[in-house]
């Protein structure tokens, strides 16, 4: 009979599989980086249980690795519990956000792209171009990759999920609903749009419409990664010619009685961390099948700097390895593109 494992244990198995052989101390650090509040003793006890189940085994002097049974269980568990794992990870990271967009301090959720040393100069030039467009500012951190990470360097910037954490910290419960491909124009708002609080310069440009929508049932970040891999974006047209392009972003709903507060927080978040925003008023009554609804929601569509950066690097062939939900990092680790571009090389 197959063991019944919780989401946290599947995530632990996944990390053992990726970094094996690996010890408990490293696993504690990686689990915390991925949003879990967990102690070394808990990791050691869990590993002992997994050993007894025949899912992991000790490598003398090096740590644990998966057995063949462990690998089969991980693959099967991924299929059966993938959605719940993604929801739990997003919820955990969202709850750890302490970022205050007004003060521009606190912790954010980061996306990470992994780069080869030979591509750094071209990446920085591309970042400067992105930063000069309405998308900007795009604060980033360029660091050497960890021993168990791909590439020579790790490029970090803020994920769209940071916004959900900002809203949550102010008591605004936002529910991720869909993700998809968005038609985008790098233009200022019309007078009517500005008066209505819709997209414009302060929002990073104009999101015209959804070209494709996928209901991820709370798993929009995973859907975003799939869309990036599928090459559905077209940021190149925006960068090279200032034309209409295709971005990949996600949408969240929130109670309409918090509309002004949510809008102000989102605008402040975008102003400091970059990306593109779009706001929508409540659903009209006639849009509901019954003609009446007890629910009133506003929605925010957001392409965070993280999603924007990953799609752009993918389009230009500069990165084929990334993590949309790398973990939480302090805002002060992210610097302006200009500061990073003019910093001394990391290997000096």
UniProtKB/TrEMBL annotation:
Recorded superkingdom: Archaea
SUPFAM superfamilies hit by this protein: Winged helix' DNA-binding domain
Keywords: Plasmid
Statement: the UniProt record of this protein carries the keyword Nuclease: no
Lipid biosynthesis among keywords: no
Pfam families per UniProt: NRD1_2, WHD_RNase_R
InterPro entries: NRD, NrpR, NrpR_dom_sf, RNase_R_HTH_12, WH_DNA-bd_sf
Boundaries of every Ribonuclease R winged-helix domain copy: 15-74
NrpR regulatory domain segment(s): 86-186, 206-285
Name this polypeptide is given: DUF128 domain-containing protein
Lineage: Archaea, Methanobacteriati, Methanobacteriota, Stenosarchaea group, Halobacteria
